[in-house]
Amino acid sequence: MSNFSDIINLAKDTIQSLVGFSQCLIPILITLMMTTGSIASASIVQPILLFLITFIGNIITTFLLPLILIGTALGIVSKVSDKVQINKLSKYFKSSTVWVLGIVLTLFVGVLSLEGGLTSSVDGVTAKTAKAAVSNFIPVVGKILGDAVDTVIGCSNILKNAVGIVGVIVIIGICAVPIIKLTILMATYYIASAICEPIADEKIISLLSQIGDTFKILLAMLIAVSVMLIIGVTLVIKISNSGLMYR
After folding, report:
1. Lower Cβ count inside 10 Å, N or C end of the chain?
2. Among candidates 96, 63, 94, which has minimal Cα distance to 76?
3. At CA 11, angle to CA 226 and CA 162, rounded to 5?
4. Distance between alpha carbon 167 and the CA centroid of its chain, in Å?
5. Cβ–Cβ under 8 Å, residues 181 and 61
6. DSSP 71
7. pTM metric for this prediction
């Protein structure tokens, strides 16, 4: 139970750290997107992306983690008591957690991909029109300024991609240690359950397996949030690069 409490706090703190870092990283990426001419994408993607990240983080910390706690507590009661058997309700809570997590992550990727696809072509046309206007309507130096715009956009795109890569590395760094720790603990409980099976009471074995299952759900949750944020960062980079491609 001591390990379980520490792991729950570890998962919650890691998710909050990931969400907090993303809320700092996304505005920087969006600003760099605007310097590459992706104005439409930046104005639409930023509020949607920040809202979805905050919304999903709040759902996990305020709803899914307590649901896991309740399911685990019910499972422990079922294993300890001979009269009170609510193991099916415990499994229902845990399976509901997995379903809700899968739905919100699917919505995240789907909404962001759809918005990015719709705005990339608009950004490409807008930037191309702006360059043509500068080149044709400003006398004498219009062509030079148009080429300068291309240079600035190219440099900003390189900088944006570099910031995005660093952001992905930091996200991996934040979640790597908790994921490794959860993996080791999950394997330890499963191995302990297998070793104790010939010599221990069946309830103890089931309890160890159930704690291992809970750790597996927490591990899936951490990996899902980490992958979601990495996908969010890479989609921001892709959306901006697609706008340049349309140009």
Report:
1. N
2. 94
3. 30
4. 12
5. no
6. H
7. 0.76
Pick the closest to residue 53 from 96, 11, 17, 8 (CA basis). 17
Which residue is listed with tokens 């729950």? 8
Question: Token digits for 123?
Answer: 């950004």
- Alpha carbon distance 85, 78 (integer Å): 5
Structure tokens at 4: 């379980």
DSSP 198: T
Burial of residue 203, with CB atoms counted within 10 A of its CB: 0-12 exposed, 13-18 middle, 19 or more buried: middle
Exposed / middle / buried, residue 136 (Cβ in 10 Å: 0-12, 13-18, 19+): exposed
Over its length of 247 residues, how does the chain's per-residue pLDDT go in tens digits? 677 778 888 888 888 888 888 888 877 777 777 766 666 566 666 677 777 788 888 888 888 888 888 888 887 777 776 676 677 777 787 788 888 888 888 887 777 766 655 555 555 445 555 555 545 555 544 555 555 555 666 666 677 777 778 888 888 888 888 889 888 888 888 888 888 877 877 777 878 888 888 888 888 888 888 888 888 787 777 766 655 554 5
Helices marked H in 36-86 — which ranges?
39-59, 65-80
Which two tokens mark 94? 């845990």
**Do residues 51 and 19 make contact, with C-beta atoms less than 8 angstroms apart?**
no
Residue 246 CB partners (closer than 8 Å, separation 6+): 120, 121, 123, 124, 125, 128
Backbone phi and psi for residue 122, each to the nearest 5 degrees, phi listed first: -65, -45
Return the domain boundaries, the chain. 2-246
Structure tokens at 231: 């996908």
